[in-house]
Design brief:
heterodimer, A: 11 helices, 2 strands, B: alpha/beta, 27% strand
């Protein structure tokens, strides 16, 4: 028994079994990812080759008329995620600055900061359906009576999505900016600089990669989330005209179609949608990283 | 009148105690530091000398659970200023205090930006120095710290790429750029090699002709070399102060420490 345990310690000379576990895990994970990509591409290929009118590369989704265009949903996903990331990232950055660089240090302020910090952590564990459910009853009526429209819109879903990605953004930023601020805090204070000034003039300019990582992870979550757009965006498969228009994202589209169809051209076009989702996420991540790397 | 003026202490500490989370680090320190030369606070590790130094620019307050009692008075521009003002006394804002009392740390604390920005950023942000004057003041401070000749063609280089000794002189330049009335130095040569340390020591000697310098050291030889005023700390209390160290040797100082240990 003891020997068996010993052999599972990778740091030991005779821990070959431990190493084997690591290798097998890596192989399984890598194979899983490759298979997933291959499957999506393989299933999407027929829809891709179909081409012409009614294929996935058109702006009209009308299965009854044999039109399976998913471009409105591609645009919807991009628009939705961009709005959510722009507002969620900005909000997260400000929140993170407030958490790291308190402007007051009274007992009440410390308590409030701990409370908000704790709340952000708890928010990571809340299922998105809960956000969606709450928003249907709380946010949509406000949008409907305040701004007009049905209340189920690009804006409504984007507001909730930005709240959804907020904890991700804040935690990534905090983990990256906190130690950097700590390293200049004393010397900065001795020069008469406040924490906020240190953050703004020293830490943020030298933390480009952290800022980008937060945006990329936030975008990934926003573009991949299904429940919030499905519940709040109205799901009309057309390009939105204003922030108050209804739109349909790729994720919501896939959820809607799979719940109604099995097999057939509509179903096949879903693989195309899945491929697009992967591509959008990949391209945007690369573009954001490239943007940050170049400047 | 002039004579009377020079008799006023540049730093006056009265009944100063500092504790962190109820743990007393320095206890009831009282001393007057005369104007001119370098005042050295000497003591073993953990004797409370850094905490005493940080009480002068209220930097202890950046640490959690800090409690300070007693008085610290500084002579700034010929005027006595209470660092911890009681009721009715004129108070000085913390940011202004720290700007007028520069500090250099044990390990070089350069900012992760360019050599130029290390000096220009505090100048423009903490002091509101107009952009047109920045270049001159940066150059002036680098010259004072005897660093200009080494970095004049590399001002845009990241400061972290300088050698340890250069980094420490950059920190000195950063403090000097704000034109302080007083410099606080926390074992500024502890992390440097012998040559770099001597270089910094020579600089401090020449700077002390123009502004008050208060320095923490745990090296007895260095203390005797530089000090015109010496304060000996042991276990959080001030053991004794010396206005004259000429003719003293290391073993005399050593005896003071041992005496303090026997009669705490």
């Amino acid at each position: 028994m003891r020997n068996a345990v010993e052999s599972f310690r990778p740091e030991r000379r005779n821990g070959e079994a431990g190493l084997a576990v690591i290798h097998v895990s890596v192989a399984l994970a890598a194979a899983g990812m490759v298979l997933l990509f291959l499957m999506v591409v393989a299933f999407a290929l027929p829809a891709f080759l179909q081409g012409g009118g009614g294929g996935p590369f058109s702006w009209s989704w009308a299965p009854g008329k044999g039109e399976f265009g998913i471009l409105p949903m591609v645009a919807g996903s991009v628009l939705m995620a961009v709005l959510a990331v722009v507002s969620g990232w900005t909000l997260g950055l400000c929140l993170c600055c407030w958490l790291l660089a308190p402007d007051r240090s009274g007992k009440g302020d410390v308590l409030l900061r701990n409370l908000v910090g704790g709340m952000v952590r708890v928010m990571t564990a809340i299922p998105t359906v809960v956000y969606g459910f709450a928003a249907v009853f709380l946010l949509t009526p406000v949008i409907r009576s305040g701004l007009g429209g049905s209340g189920f819109s690009w804006l409504t879903a984007a507001i909730m999505l930005s709240l959804l990605i907020l904890p991700t953004v804040v935690l990534v930023l905090q983990a990256g900016l906190g130690p950097r601020l700590e390293s200049v805090r004393l010397a900065g204070a001795a020069a008469g600089l406040t924490r906020l000034e240190l953050l703004w003039y020293l830490v943020l300019p030298s933390s480009r990669s952290t800022l980008i990582s937060a945006a990329v992870l936030g975008f990934g979550r926003a573009v991949g989330d299904t429940m919030l757009p499905l519940m709040l965006a109205g799901n009309a498969p057309v390009m939105p005209e204003t922030l108050l228009s209804s739109l349909r994202t790729l994720t919501a589209h896939m959820a809607l179609v799979t719940s109604n169809e099995v097999g057939g051209a509509a179903y096949d076009s879903l693989f195309m949608a899945g491929l697009f989702l992967l591509l959008i996420n990949g391209i945007v991540s690369l573009a954001i990283r490239r943007m940050g790397g170049r400047s | 009148m002039d004579k009377l003026h020079s008799l006023r202490p540049v730093l006056s500490v009265g009944g100063l105690s500092v504790s962190f989370f109820q743990h007393t680090v320095i206890h009831n320190v009282t001393m007057d530091v005369p104007k001119g030369g370098i005042a050295v606070i000497v003591g073993r590790s953990g004797s409370g000398k850094t905490t005493l130094l940080r009480a002068i620019n209220r930097l202890n307050e950046e640490m959690p659970g800090c409690r300070t009692e007693g008085q610290v008075n500084l002579l700034l521009d010929g005027e006595s200023v209470a660092v911890y003002p009681g009721r009715g006394e004129r108070s000085i804002p913390v940011a202004e205090l720290r700007r007028r009392v520069g500090m250099v740390f044990q390990t070089p604390q350069v900012f992760p930006v360019s050599v130029y920005r290390n000096l220009a950023m505090p100048l423009s942000v903490a002091m509101g120095c107009p952009r047109s004057e920045l270049d001159d003041r940066v150059q002036d401070a680098l010259r004072q710290a005897d660093l200009w000749n080494e970095v004049s063609d590399r001002l845009e280089m990241p400061a972290e790429r300088l050698s340890g000794g250069q980094q420490q002189r950059l920190c000195l330049a950063r403090a000097l750029a704000l034109r302080p009335d007083m410099l606080l130095l926390d074992e500024p040569t502890a992390s440097l090699d012998v040559r770099a340390a001597r270089h910094v020591e020579e600089l401090l000697m020449s700077l002390s002709e123009r502004l008050s310098v208060i320095m923490v050291s745990h090296g007895l030889a260095q203390s005797l070399r530089l000090a015109s005023f010496l304060a000996v700390m042991e276990s959080g209390t001030l053991v004794r102060t010396l206005d004259e160290v000429a003719g003293m040797e290391e073993k005399d100082l050593e005896k003071m420490f041992e005496g303090a240990q026997m009669h705490p």
